[in-house]
Amino acid sequence: MRCSRVRASLAQLRRWGPPLHVSGPTSLQYNLSTCKSFWSLIFTPPFINKHHSSSSSSSSSSSSSSSSPFSSFLFLSHPQFHHTHFTLYDCNHATWRNISLSLTTTDSSSPSSWLSTLVSSGGLFCLSDPNSSSLLVCNLLAKTSRKIEYPSFNLRLEHLTFITTPKGYTIFVLFSHPSSSPSSSTSNVFVYDSKVLSWRRFEGHFGVNLGDTNRQQQGVYFNGGLYFATPEPFSVVKFDLGNGRLERPIGVLPDQVTFLRLVSDGGEGKKLFLIGGVGSNGISRSIKLWEFSDEENWNEVESLPDLMCRKFVSVCYHNYEQVYCFWHEGMICICCYTWPEILYYLVSRKTWHWLPRSPSLPPKCSCGFKWFSFVPKLYAAV
């Protein structure tokens, strides 16, 4: 009897993950007759590792792009939500979830300030708390976090990129001094390496290359470096994580582009994609996808179907500064801060799709839609 309860609970565990205060019409009720310490038992690493391994071997016929035993999610935040309320789309079960989470460590933190810097990668979240001049890296599944102080208190955060690799994570931050003018191109780059738990500083004219519009779009990891798409005049630049040098241009860009965004295949860094509009006078007539080749050329992969292209350019009103992209489990997600849906491209099937609006969103939500990739990983160390 006890074993059957454990098996039933484990099945729920694999489907739902830990009890993160799930609410709404699809909420899960954990009505199991077990001891009080049962949940802490089944979330211990040996228990999950053992049963997930046996489950994987018994179902080897099914394939997944993620090694996690949990579902993968698209994570949505919005200014009209309470700062602890978020909406998730369960990609494995094609279902919406509502959860309540607390990502801050102090009551004095302003939700609007830290939420604007929230980024995710590899099952971890990173955000900035300007009140304490620090960054917070957290694993929501393992309920662990690390507070990382700024390398200097007299700095203003201009850009934050957070990437994870099989060996850990790297934080790339672009700082400026509060006394410097906003148009100043002199900024300091600091890179934090989780393997050594320390910052490295690189000085240079990075601001003029990254530009204001890149503060919302993260750099992407590829071939041992971070790649950025700059605003006009458009170019792709590489920041070498080893020596701190900024190299440009990378490859010959397509003609008549109106905006550019970069996406790489997660922490693997084996493929680099370019998403951009093609047109004239700042108006996109088509949206295309290119892949970076070994010969350092941008080869066209796909073009967005005409009807989908018309919808996308109409919802962003040709204000491409609001467009951002990210990778999620074999999907290239193209989002707009002013629109609640996600346009995504399935790389394996070479097909385009729309993820519709969440039913839990208020009817008059207008802008501020910020999506993240969330692939829970128990062993992702902070």
What does this structure look like?
The protein is mainly beta. Helices cover 14% and strands 40% of the residues. It contains six helices and 24 strands. Strands 3-2-1-24 form a four-stranded antiparallel sheet, with no helix packed on it. The chain has a four-stranded antiparallel sheet with strand order 4-5-6-7. The longest helix is centred in the first third of the chain and has 15 residues, at 2-16. It starts with a helix and ends in an 8-residue tail after the last strand. This is F-box/kelch-repeat protein. It comes from Stylosanthes scabra.
Topology of helices and strands:
Blueprint: H1 2-16, H2 38-42, H3 45-58, E1 73-77, E2 85-90, E3 95-100, H4 111-115, E4 119-121, E5 124-129, E6 134-139, E7 144-149, E8 156-165, E9 168-176, E10 187-193, E11 198-204, H5 207-210, E12 220-222, E13 225-230, E14 235-240, E15 246-247, E16 257-264, E17 272-280, E18 283-292, E19 298-303, H6 306-315, E20 323-328, E21 331-336, E22 339-346, E23 351-355, E24 370-374
Antiparallel strand pairs: 1-2, 1-24, 2-3, 4-5, 5-6, 6-7, 8-9, 9-10, 10-11, 12-13, 13-14, 14-15, 16-17, 17-18, 18-19, 20-21, 21-22, 22-23
Protein name: F-box/kelch-repeat protein
InterPro entries: Kelch-typ_b-propeller (IPR015915), SCF_F-box_component (IPR050796)
